[in-house]
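Anyone opening a protein record will find just a pair of labelled lines. A complete record is shown below as an example.
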Amino acid sequence: RGSEGKIAAIQYAREQRIPFLGVSLGMQMLIVEYARNVAGLKDANSTEFVADTPNPVIHLPRDPEDESKRSDKMRLGAYPCELAENSLAARIYKTRRISERHRHRYEFNDVYRDPLESAGLRFSGINPEHQYVEVVELEDHPWFLGCHFHPEFKSRPTNPHPLFRDYIAAAMEFRDQRAAE
Protein backbone atom coordinates (compact mmCIF):
# COMPACT_ATOMS: atom_id res chain seq x y z
CA ARG A 1 0.00 0.00 0.00
CA GLY A 2 3.00 2.31 -0.15
CA SER A 3 3.03 3.17 3.55
CA GLU A 4 6.80 3.71 3.66
CA GLY A 5 6.59 6.17 0.75
CA LYS A 6 3.81 8.04 2.54
CA ILE A 7 5.94 8.21 5.68
CA ALA A 8 8.91 9.56 3.70
CA ALA A 9 6.72 12.23 2.07
CA ILE A 10 5.33 13.28 5.46
CA GLN A 11 8.84 13.52 6.89
CA TYR A 12 9.90 15.71 3.98
CA ALA A 13 6.89 18.03 4.44
CA ARG A 14 7.55 18.27 8.17
CA GLU A 15 11.28 18.95 7.82
CA GLN A 16 10.92 21.39 4.91
CA ARG A 17 8.01 23.19 6.61
CA ILE A 18 5.69 22.48 3.68
CA PRO A 19 1.95 22.66 4.48
CA PHE A 20 0.57 19.18 5.09
CA LEU A 21 -2.94 17.78 5.61
CA GLY A 22 -3.22 14.09 6.48
CA VAL A 23 -6.71 12.61 6.26
CA SER A 24 -7.52 9.28 7.99
CA LEU A 25 -4.65 7.00 6.91
CA GLY A 26 -2.67 10.20 6.33
CA MET A 27 -3.02 11.05 10.03
CA GLN A 28 -2.05 7.51 10.98
CA MET A 29 1.10 7.71 8.83
CA LEU A 30 1.86 11.18 10.25
CA ILE A 31 1.85 9.61 13.73
CA VAL A 32 4.08 6.71 12.61
CA GLU A 33 6.53 9.15 10.99
CA TYR A 34 6.65 11.37 14.05
CA ALA A 35 7.03 8.43 16.44
CA ARG A 36 9.96 7.06 14.41
CA ASN A 37 11.82 10.20 13.44
CA VAL A 38 11.14 12.62 16.30
CA ALA A 39 10.12 10.58 19.36
CA GLY A 40 12.82 7.95 18.70
CA LEU A 41 10.53 4.92 18.40
CA LYS A 42 12.43 3.58 15.37
CA ASP A 43 10.23 0.52 14.90
CA ALA A 44 6.87 2.29 15.37
CA ASN A 45 4.17 1.20 12.96
CA SER A 46 0.50 0.40 12.50
CA THR A 47 -0.64 -3.13 13.27
CA GLU A 48 -2.50 -2.93 9.96
CA PHE A 49 0.89 -3.15 8.22
CA VAL A 50 3.06 -4.98 10.78
CA ALA A 51 0.90 -7.06 13.10
CA ASP A 52 3.65 -7.70 15.66
CA THR A 53 5.34 -4.29 15.62
CA PRO A 54 7.04 -3.62 18.97
CA ASN A 55 5.60 -0.07 19.02
CA PRO A 56 2.02 -0.22 17.69
CA VAL A 57 1.23 3.50 17.65
CA ILE A 58 -1.80 2.71 15.48
CA HIS A 59 -3.86 -0.37 16.38
CA LEU A 60 -7.29 -1.90 16.60
CA PRO A 61 -8.80 -0.64 19.86
CA ARG A 62 -10.31 -2.88 22.52
CA ASP A 63 -13.88 -3.97 21.91
CA PRO A 64 -16.06 -1.87 24.25
CA GLU A 65 -18.37 -4.87 24.73
CA ASP A 66 -15.53 -7.29 25.53
CA GLU A 67 -12.31 -5.61 26.71
CA SER A 68 -10.41 -8.90 26.33
CA LYS A 69 -10.73 -8.68 22.52
CA ARG A 70 -9.68 -6.22 19.85
CA SER A 71 -12.54 -4.64 17.97
CA ASP A 72 -12.78 -5.19 14.23
CA LYS A 73 -15.78 -2.89 13.97
CA MET A 74 -15.57 0.00 11.57
CA ARG A 75 -16.19 3.41 13.10
CA LEU A 76 -18.79 4.88 10.74
CA GLY A 77 -20.81 8.06 10.83
CA ALA A 78 -20.57 11.35 12.67
CA TYR A 79 -18.78 11.67 16.01
CA PRO A 80 -18.20 14.72 18.20
CA CYS A 81 -14.74 16.17 18.68
CA GLU A 82 -13.47 18.72 21.20
CA LEU A 83 -10.73 20.97 19.80
CA ALA A 84 -7.96 22.34 22.01
CA GLU A 85 -7.95 26.02 22.78
CA ASN A 86 -5.53 28.05 20.61
CA SER A 87 -4.99 25.12 18.26
CA LEU A 88 -4.72 25.44 14.49
CA ALA A 89 -7.85 23.28 14.21
CA ALA A 90 -9.87 25.57 16.52
CA ARG A 91 -8.73 28.64 14.55
CA ILE A 92 -9.77 26.98 11.28
CA TYR A 93 -13.18 25.85 12.54
CA LYS A 94 -13.74 29.01 14.61
CA THR A 95 -15.22 26.83 17.36
CA ARG A 96 -14.05 24.24 19.85
CA ARG A 97 -16.76 21.59 19.34
CA ILE A 98 -17.24 19.93 15.98
CA SER A 99 -18.83 16.80 14.55
CA GLU A 100 -17.19 14.96 11.67
CA ARG A 101 -17.81 11.74 9.77
CA HIS A 102 -15.60 8.66 10.08
CA ARG A 103 -14.88 5.50 8.13
CA HIS A 104 -12.03 3.47 9.66
CA ARG A 105 -11.15 0.65 12.04
CA TYR A 106 -7.70 1.53 13.32
CA GLU A 107 -7.13 4.14 16.03
CA PHE A 108 -4.23 5.88 17.70
CA ASN A 109 -2.85 3.77 20.56
CA ASP A 110 -3.23 6.03 23.59
CA VAL A 111 -0.33 4.30 25.37
CA TYR A 112 1.91 6.47 23.16
CA ARG A 113 0.27 9.80 23.94
CA ASP A 114 2.79 10.94 26.56
CA PRO A 115 5.97 10.10 24.59
CA LEU A 116 4.64 11.74 21.43
CA GLU A 117 3.32 14.78 23.27
CA SER A 118 6.67 15.14 25.05
CA ALA A 119 8.32 15.09 21.62
CA GLY A 120 6.10 17.97 20.43
CA LEU A 121 3.08 16.38 18.73
CA ARG A 122 -0.10 18.16 19.80
CA PHE A 123 -3.26 16.11 20.23
CA SER A 124 -5.62 18.96 19.44
CA GLY A 125 -8.88 17.12 18.76
CA ILE A 126 -10.31 14.44 21.06
CA ASN A 127 -13.56 12.49 20.93
CA PRO A 128 -15.18 13.26 24.32
CA GLU A 129 -16.96 9.90 24.60
CA HIS A 130 -14.11 7.43 23.97
CA GLN A 131 -11.13 9.80 24.19
CA TYR A 132 -10.03 8.80 20.67
CA VAL A 133 -7.52 11.11 19.04
CA GLU A 134 -9.21 12.91 16.14
CA VAL A 135 -6.77 15.73 15.27
CA VAL A 136 -3.01 16.11 15.65
CA GLU A 137 -0.82 19.06 14.71
CA LEU A 138 2.58 20.65 15.16
CA GLU A 139 2.74 24.03 16.86
CA ASP A 140 6.20 24.91 15.50
CA HIS A 141 5.20 24.32 11.87
CA PRO A 142 3.33 26.84 9.67
CA TRP A 143 0.55 24.37 8.73
CA PHE A 144 0.82 20.67 9.64
CA LEU A 145 -2.34 18.84 10.64
CA GLY A 146 -3.75 15.33 10.57
CA CYS A 147 -7.39 14.40 11.08
CA HIS A 148 -8.77 10.91 11.54
CA PHE A 149 -12.17 11.77 10.10
CA HIS A 150 -13.06 12.40 6.46
CA PRO A 151 -13.69 16.11 5.77
CA GLU A 152 -14.43 15.31 2.13
CA PHE A 153 -17.78 13.88 3.27
CA LYS A 154 -18.89 17.40 4.24
CA SER A 155 -17.20 19.40 1.49
CA ARG A 156 -19.05 20.78 -1.53
CA PRO A 157 -17.77 22.58 -4.66
CA THR A 158 -19.42 25.85 -3.64
CA ASN A 159 -18.87 25.34 0.11
CA PRO A 160 -15.47 23.72 0.74
CA HIS A 161 -14.71 22.17 4.11
CA PRO A 162 -12.73 24.61 6.29
CA LEU A 163 -9.75 22.23 6.51
CA PHE A 164 -9.46 22.05 2.71
CA ARG A 165 -10.01 25.80 2.32
CA ASP A 166 -7.30 26.71 4.82
CA TYR A 167 -4.88 24.01 3.66
CA ILE A 168 -5.10 25.25 0.06
CA ALA A 169 -4.60 28.84 1.24
CA ALA A 170 -1.49 27.76 3.21
CA ALA A 171 -0.16 25.82 0.21
CA MET A 172 -0.65 28.84 -2.08
CA GLU A 173 1.09 31.11 0.44
CA PHE A 174 3.98 28.62 0.63
CA ARG A 175 4.18 28.54 -3.18
CA ASP A 176 4.21 32.31 -3.40
CA GLN A 177 6.93 32.61 -0.75
CA ARG A 178 9.08 30.05 -2.58
CA ALA A 179 8.57 31.87 -5.89
CA ALA A 180 9.68 35.14 -4.31
CA GLU A 181 12.95 33.63 -3.02
